[in-house]
Amino acid sequence: MAAIRYKELLCEIVPHYEPRPPKSKWVISIEGKLEQGHQDNMPGSWAKLSIYRIPCHLKHGEDKAWVPQIVSLGPYHHHGEKHLLHMERHKWQCLHRILERSGQDIGLYLDLVKKVEWRARAGYEGRISMSCDEFVEMMVLDGCFVIEMFRGFVEGFKNLGYPLNDPVFSMQPSILQIQRDMIMLENQIPLFILDQLLGLQFGDPNQKGCVAKLAIQSFKPLMPTETLTFNPLYNHDTAYYLDGFRWGLLLLGPKRSKTKPWSQRRQWFKRCLTELREAGIKVMPSPSRILVDIKFKNGILKIPRLKIHKGTRLLFLNLIAFEQSHLDRSNQVTSYVIFMRNLINSHEDVRYLCSRGIIRHCLESDAQLIDLFNRLCREVDFDIRDSYFPRLTFDLELYYEHWAFLTRKWNAWVAILKNKYFDNPWSIISLVAAFALLVLTFIQAFYAVYAYYRPYS
User: Fold this and answer.
1) Kind plus residue range of the DSSP H or E element containing 95
2) Both ends of the chain: CA-CA distance in Å?
3) Residue among 88, 87, 118 at smallest CA distance from 192
């Protein structure tokens, strides 16, 4: 009653006073979204992201290139699909074997990850609808499984205590598919988590970079080049092993130029191999083992050797998606794939590259190889001014245009000669007679001079 009387008195004193109506659910919802937007816009909030979802425009409705087929790692595909349940049970078997081998308690691993749970969660794009306990459990289980895989690939699963008839690790097709699943962009565990879990297993916290080296050795069957080397320069504090794999491919590759006047060309270089060969350009395998180390000099184009197998498209697609997601990374792999797509335009191009030892593939036909590059480049967001090969493409285009200019000029001369001197039989006879007379005159002059300086004895 006192509150009602107070409002009545307030209205008498302040005539224009109107009590504020309570907020509707709609307004409360909008305010909540604004607060979330404020939090997302805080300085450094986006800088924590490191593991992105693959962009929708790259998926093309095909699941096998970006959805795990055997094992799910991380929160993006942690939905309990039937085809992944078998490996979930095997993860727990691996974790049990790790604890048994190290003589440690699971609580140590849970406490370790719980301390950095916020940092790991912030690294994933979008909201992760998992409780703290669920997220920590997943990180420990999946992280230990990844480490066990890397060690098994390098040291041998038998040396880790697994039987020869293990239902997963004794099957080569399963191992290859696990490796392909582990290289997917959406199937990653933060590298700092793996380093800490490995340090706990070994009883030595100083394991920074060790997991990345194990990953490079583990993924050798997937590499498209002759060799793959660990690059110690990349920042593995905010990255994951797919990033380390990419750095290994690009190690010691050509440097991006700071000033690129040639990058302002009107269009991307689109000359196929057949056109380059017609222009007199020789194509040779490069001695370099770095994927993007393509060079052109003195009419010779040198391309590093490339191995293409069943998992190559999956690998390149996820590396392209990685570069499309990380604006702070260069676009070497994307530029390389687009360059090769433009170079390979026909079965003849494929056969020539194979005959020169530049490409080796185990696909069913050359048409599949052409289709592979075409599908990789479909819907790729790419600015030609930001190409990783600006000087290379500029030089190739310049060389080709110079050859085309000379060819057009030669054809013009031939056309003039044909139209002016070969338009009828009498013109041809006159030209031949004039030429014969010129030759005879030259011979006569030669012998006259010769007789003057060398008279008969």
Assistant:
1) helix 82-102
2) 152
3) 118
Q: Indicate the burial class of 233 (C-beta count within 10 angstroms; 0-12, 13-18, 19 or more).
A: exposed
3 state DSSP class of 132: helix
Tokens found for residue 22? 């309570």
Boundaries of every domain in the chain:
57-249, 262-400
pTM above 0.85, yes or no: no
Contact 181, 68 (CB under 8 A): yes
Segment-wise mean pLDDT, segments of 10 residues, the chain, 457 residues: 54 53 73 67 54 80 79 90 89 94 93 94 88 95 95 91 87 88 92 92 81 84 73 56 78 45 53 90 91 91 92 89 79 90 93 94 90 86 73 88 76 64 67 79 76 61
Neighbours of 48 (CB within 10 A): 14
Phi, psi of 19, deg, nearest 5 = -60, 135
Phi, psi (degrees; rounded to nearest 5) at 296? -135, 125
Ramachandran angles phi, psi of 51, nearest 5°: -115, 105
Residue 62 CB coordination number (10 Å)? 12
10 Å CB burial of residue 294 (0-12, 13-18, 19+) is buried
Cβ neighbours around 31 below 10 Å, total:
11
Q: How confident is the model over 42-69, as pLDDT tens digits?
A: 544 444 677 888 887 777 666 677 889 9
Q: Closest Cα to residue 185, out of 313, 51, 326?
A: 51
CA dihedral 412, 413, 418, 419 (to 10 degrees): 60
Beta bridge partners of 16: none
In contact, 421 and 428? CB cutoff 8 Å: yes
The number of angstroms, rounded, from the C-alpha of 282 to the middle of its chain's C-alpha atoms is: 27
Residues whose CB is less than 8 angstroms from the CB of residue 432 and which lie 6 or more positions away in sequence, other chains included: none
Among 378, 334, 394, 274, smallest CA distance to 62 is for 378
